[in-house]
Specification:
- The protein is of the alpha/beta class and 472 residues long.
- It folds into four domains: 4-148, Methylthiotransferase, N-terminal domain (Rossmann fold), CATH 3.40.50.12160; 162-281, Transcription Regulator spoIIAA, CATH 3.30.750; 283-404, 2-Layer Sandwich (Transcription Regulator spoIIAA), CATH 3.30.750; 409-471, Nucleic acid-binding proteins (OB fold (Dihydrolipoamide Acetyltransferase, E2P)), CATH 2.40.50.
- It has 15 helices and 18 strands.
- The chain has helices spanning 24-39, 62-78, 89-93, 95-99, 116-125, 188-192, 200-212, 238-248, 266-274, 293-299, 305-319, 338-350, 368-375, 380-403, 419-423; strands spanning 15-20, 43-44, 52-57, 83-88, 104-109, 147-148, 172-177, 196-197, 217-222, 253-256, 283-285, 324-331, 353-360, 409-414, 426-431, 436-440, 448-456, 462-471.
- It has a six-stranded parallel beta sheet with strand order 2-1-3-4-5-6, with helices on both faces. A five-stranded mixed β-barrel has the order 14-15-16-18-17.
- Helix 1 (24-39) crosses helix 5 and helix 9 runs parallel beside helix 11.
- The radius of gyration is 23 Å and the shape is globular.
- 43% of the residues are buried.
Length: 472
């Protein structure tokens, strides 16, 4: 008997559209859903033409929730016939809220994301499943959409989809899910559960499949990536996994996404010395949140400012000054004083960051920081003033870092180039140390090249010329 996912293209003459919100791990989920739908015979289509629209939500801030709701309503307005499937962190945190929005056909929390492709396919084609467990956990009530969500997170991994270069030249392979930390401001333990790891043999299979598909750069992502392996038998570690991947495969370049400061172990940092920059990208993202020890303690972060400085120094020692360092920073955490913010500002100013992701504090329901916010909120006007100061500082740090690259020879991978730049005879690329560049000449996406940085525009965009032709 044919399985549900083996039906013919003629039976599945429908289209889908996926909109991703949030982090790299969330994008990896969306890419996996898209891969499964495409493998089942659906075609990716613009929003207005799709039969089913998958909205992959984030819920890290109230603004992320608002953006998701606005997108759902816009989708229903522009394409009222489309079946709208809402998944992701917001769908896990408040499924009933989303199920009540007009036009929503299904809500699938992260706990059941493995079923998202099949549920979306069923809605798009009207074909009932023969095999999958797709009975909703909450039935239709008051004309609301059915819900798949619980607190077990037994069906959260989408590991079946083979990652390959396509719309994303550098796809994300999510090897870790959930987080067992309990930062006071964070809803991730609620929306994704405790830390869970993809098995090493499954990861190795994915890497080999990626290479067979012509992949050049693969990004390892996770919600708390540095904790990969700790829930597996024999307490496996991320450094050991990376060594296996780079030793047993010919993967040209591996990039690591965000890793918490305390998880940058000596063994992990040493890998940057052992493997060449062309194979292990000289790019490190260490979430900071605050440079004030007192604020970090109120956040229940597991490091102190001096720990962070030590990790950065060790990374620069291993990678050299070509390292691009990034961080997340939050302004306006409850009770943050002017003096505590000044500590954060000076802390950032003293370190060689290449970019910053900046966020105003957003109180999330059912977190300790929600209660702290009720007791000691930072006025909105002050939060915005601090955010503006951080934006200006971040721009200065980015300019300084990119200026240092002028004249250097760097490895890069070509990306999908917008039509206007193609018409101008240019190519968009990303360097190994995570710098976007505009390259003279036209090259196809997914090519590894050597380039020389020639200039930095007033908009802080790097320009480059080709030194070495594409190679495998």
């Amino acid at each position: 008997m044919e399985t549900f996912f083996a039906r013919t293209l003629e039976e599945m003459a429908s289209g889908f559209h996926i909109e991703n919100f949030g982090c790299r791990a969330a994008r990896a989920d969306g890419e996996a859903v898209a891969e499964r739908l495409a493998a089942s015979g659906l075609t990716a289509q613009p929003l207005r033409e799709a039969d089913v629209v998958v909205v992959n939500t984030c819920s890290v801030t109230a603004e992320a929730d608002r953006e998701a709701r606005a997108y759902i309503r816009r989708t229903h307005r522009l394409n009222p016939e489309a079946k709208i499937v809402v998944t992701g962190c917001y769908a896990q945190r408040a499924p009933e809220e989303l199920a009540a929005i007009e036009g929503v056909s299904a809500v699938i929390g992260n706990s059941h994301k493995a079923f998202a492709p099949e549920i979306a396919l069923r809605l798009a084609t009207g074909v009932a499943s023969e095999t999958a467990q797709v009975v909703p956990l909450a039935s239709l009530t008051n004309n609301n959409a059915p819900i798949w969500a619980d607190d077990n997170f037994a069906h959260s991994f989408l590991e079946e989809a083979q990652v390959a270069p396509g719309a994303q030249t550098r796809p994300n392979l999510k090897i870790q899910e959930g987080c067992s930390n309990r930062c006071t401001f964070c809803v991730i333990p609620q929306t994704r559960g405790n830390s869970r790891s993809l098995a090493p043999d499954a990861i190795l299979k994915q890497v080999r499949g990626f290479l067979a598909a012509g992949g050049r750069e693969l990004v390892f992502s996770g919600i708390n990536l540095g904790r990969w392996g700790r829930d597996l038998a024999n307490q496996q570690t991320l450094p050991a996994l990376i060594r296996t991947i780079l030793s047993e495969t010919d993967l040209p370049r591996l990039r690591l996404s965000s890793i918490e400061p305390m998880d940058w172990t000596d063994e992990l940092i040493a890998l940057f010395r052992e493997f060449s920059p062309s194979r292990l990208a000289r790019h490190a993202h260490l979430p900071l949140q605050s440079g004030s020890d007192a604020v970090l303690r109120r956040m229940h972060r597991r490091y102190r400012p001096w720990h962070y400085v030590e990790k950065v120094a060790a990374l620069i020692g291993a990678c050299g000054d070509g390292l691009t360092l990034g961080a997340d920073v939050m302004a306006g955490f409850p009770a943050e004083t002017d003096a505590e913010f000044a500590e954060t500002y000076e802390f950032i100013r003293a370190l060689p960051f290449g970019y910053l992701h900046l966020f105003p504090f957003s109180p999330r329901p059912n977190t300790r920081a929600w209660q702290l916010h009720q007791q000691s909120p930072v006025p909105t006007r002050i939060v915005e003033e601090r955010m503006q100061a951080l934006r200006e500082l971040a721009a200065a740090k980015t300019h300084a870092h990119r200026s240092q690259m002028i004249g250097r020879t760097l490895d890069a991978i070509t990306l999908h180039t917008p039509a206007l730049l193609i018409a101008a005879g240019k190519t968009v690329a990303l360097t190994g140390n995570f710098l976007p560049v505009v390259l003279e000449g036209q090259l196809a996406a997914n090519q590894l090249v050597q380039i020389q940085i020639t200039s930095l525009t007033e908009a802080d965009e790097l320009a480059a010329t080709l030194i070495c032709a594409p190679h495998a």
